[in-house]
Design brief:
The chain is of the alpha/beta class. Among the domains are: 206 residues, no CATH class; 80 residues, no CATH class; 106 residues. The protein is built from 24 helices and nine strands. A hairpin with a 4-residue loop joins strand 8 and strand 9. Helix 11 packs across helix 16.
């Protein structure tokens, strides 16, 4: 007999009338871990590690954003200047300093513990993203407890942990996983304040903990990515104020003291960078970065609706259930819990759809609201029984497509079948198939759990086995390996034709980015120097070398593929033999 539940208002606890163990091992696991908060947190932490760690340590730096962030942090550590942000000699003022400080702390800690060559280990720069992703999963659980039961909160957190998009961001040394962490903290605290007001609880002595979390999270989000977090919060507050015709509950957030605290946290660095660079930071970050996105000046333009299409991939495996939950969410949109979550989700989503520049990770801070809304409908047995039920097939389609693309791509690029991935691929397909076959109104939770297990195996196959084996996609790693094997001490390099940020990160800050002629002149200036010449620049290099009488030989040729430019590259490593 299936579980039956009373149907509470969304945002209020739900208790089972009579609970019967469904006999499933996966459901039994959830029964066990949701018996206490400690078990739930430990379980989510374990799931986060299983989902995020495959490939975390051995995937080389990814161009271009990750490598740029990592290189700027490396230069901070090398120079000891933790105010200015630079990539080689150029300022990098697109984002505030928060992520660079966190990455620097990881590098300095590893160096203090005696880890050799810490500054060259990309996984250390990814540690803040890993902590941010796991922290966001745990905070999704905490935020969801204000709306659904502990069991539902665990399921919402599992949707976030297993989502394709968060799995990607957890492995990249960028701002987005940490920004998600701060947004969920802020919105979770704000939700508790708002729902307590809607329940009519006495505001005479509101707790300090929720406002403290809220304003500290806002400060962290500003230091990570500027005013973006204020958009999420501000649009939600404005929407709720319009719907309720009142915003008096905001005073429970202690806005006067909160603003002072937030400014205490964020102003010192902004004052320091203004003192150092004048208006340059604000001109680059607001005018050069933020406003350029409005005009699609980064070659990532897409029409409205693009995020809705991407959602079915980026929020897998939660996306099929989210689609089935949508009609129920709309019917209950006036309930306080649903109203808050929709205020978190809808206005910011519309803004992102209207902005011309579109990148998948922009909407990531909105996914926790979708996860909680979906679980609320699942708990109420209110999932759609219409044609939307056919979306259950998506639990099998996505692992099937990704597996085929990954394995075939590996064979094409490396001529190797990557047998290590095959058992994980098979397991992902089996559990995805179970999720599809088992789905009905009474077993939606079990289908979701099978899909989460499929996501774990898919993560192991894609990130743990296939991606590290695709060495042609990471020519910078092969070049750095070649330079480490030379017999001279302290090799210096100049690059022409292939000048990705990962190359600077892996071969050294002093790497000269030039053209073929400049690389020949560089090679002519001393010993233990190497010219990294992409095939399209070899002619100009050879002509200049002949003109200046430079004798050189080729130490190695590296064949690869430049993902940033979408083309094959052939890079020759030349070393000087002297001049005639």
């Amino acid at each position: 007999m299936a579980e039956t539940y009373a149907r509470p208002r969304f945002g209020e606890p739900r208790e089972p009338k009579n609970r019967v163990n469904p006999g499933s091992r996966l459901t039994a696991v959830i029964d066990f871990v949701t018996a206490s908060h400690v078990r739930s947190i430990a379980f989510l932490l374990l799931c986060g590690l299983l989902l995020f760690l495959p490939g975390f340590f051995n995937i080389p730096p990814i161009d271009r954003d990750e490598a740029r962030f990592a290189q700027a942090t490396k230069q901070m550590v090398e120079s000891g200047d933790f105010v200015d942000i630079r990539f080689q000699d150029d300022v990098r003022y697109k984002k505030p300093v928060g992520i660079y400080w966190l990455q620097s702390a990881a590098i300095e800690t590893a160096s203090a513990l005696g880890l050799p060559r810490a500054q060259l280990r990309i996984w250390l720069y990814r540690m803040p993203s890993l902590f941010g992703a796991i922290g966001a999963v745990l905070l999704t659980y905490w935020a969801a407890l204000g709306f659904v039961t502990r069991r539902g909160a665990v399921l919402a957190a599992l949707m976030m942990a297993s989502s394709v998009l968060l799995g990607v961001e957890a492995r990249l040394a960028k701002t987005d996983a940490m920004l998600l962490f701060t947004v969920v903290a802020a919105m979770g605290a704000m939700a508790r304040v708002y729902l307590s007001w809607k329940r009519g609880e006495n505001p005479a002595r509101p707790p300090w903990s929720w406002p403290a979390i809220f304003w500290t999270a806002l400060a962290g989000g500003i230091l990570l990515k500027g005013p973006l977090i204020l958009m999420f919060v501000g649009l939600a507050i404005a929407t709720l104020a319009i719907l309720d015709r009142s915003a008096v509950w905001i005073w429970r957030l202690r806005p006067v003291w909160g603003l002072i605290w937030m400014l205490v946290l964020v102003l010192p660095w902004f004052v320091a960078i203004f003192w150092r660079a004048g208006n340059a930071f604000f001109a680059d970050s607001i005018g050069g970065d933020m406003l350029s996105k409005l005009a699609a000046q980064e070659s990532h333009g897409a029409p409205p609706g693009a995020y809705l299409l991407l959602f079915w991939l980026t929020f897998w495996p939660g996306a099929p259930l989210a689609g089935m939950a949508a009609p129920a969410v709309w019917r209950t949109r006036r309930e306080s819990g649903v109203q808050f979550l929709l205020a978190w989700l809808v206005p910011s989503w519309i803004v992102f759809e209207l902005v011309l520049t579109k990148l998948p990770h922009y909407v990531l801070p909105l996914y926790p609201a979708i996860a909680i809304l979906t679980v609320g409908a699942l708990e109420r047995r209110a999932l759609s029984r219409s044609w939307l039920r056919r979306g259950a097939a998506w639990w099998f389609v996505i692992p099937a497509l990704i597996s085929v693309i990954a394995v075939v791509g590996a064979v094409i690029l490396t001529r190797q079948p990557v047998f290590l991935a095959w058992p994980f691929v098979a397991a992902a397909l089996i559990f995805g198939l179970f999720a599809w076959w088992l789905y009905d109104d009474n077993r939606a939770e079990l289908s979701l759990l099978n899909a989460v297990v499929a996501a774990i195996f898919l993560s192991a196959a894609l990130y743990g086995a296939v991606t590290p084996a695709l060495t042609p996609l990471f020519p910078s790693a092969e070049i750095a390996r070649a330079l480490r094997n030379v017999v001279c001490v302290g090799p210096k390099a100049a690059a022409a034709g292939f000048q990705e940020p990962s190359l600077v990160f892996m071969t050294g800050t002093s790497t000269l980015l030039t053209d073929g002629s400049g690389a020949a002149d560089f090679l002519n200036q001393g010993s233990c120097r190497f010219a990294l010449i992409e095939a399209r620049s070899e002619r100009s290099f050879a002509q200049r070398a002949e003109a200046i009488g430079l004798r050189y030989n080729m130490a190695k040729r590296i064949e690869g593929y430049n993902l940033s430019q979408g083309r094959a590259v052939s890079i020759a490593v030349f070393r000087s033999e002297g001049t005639e």
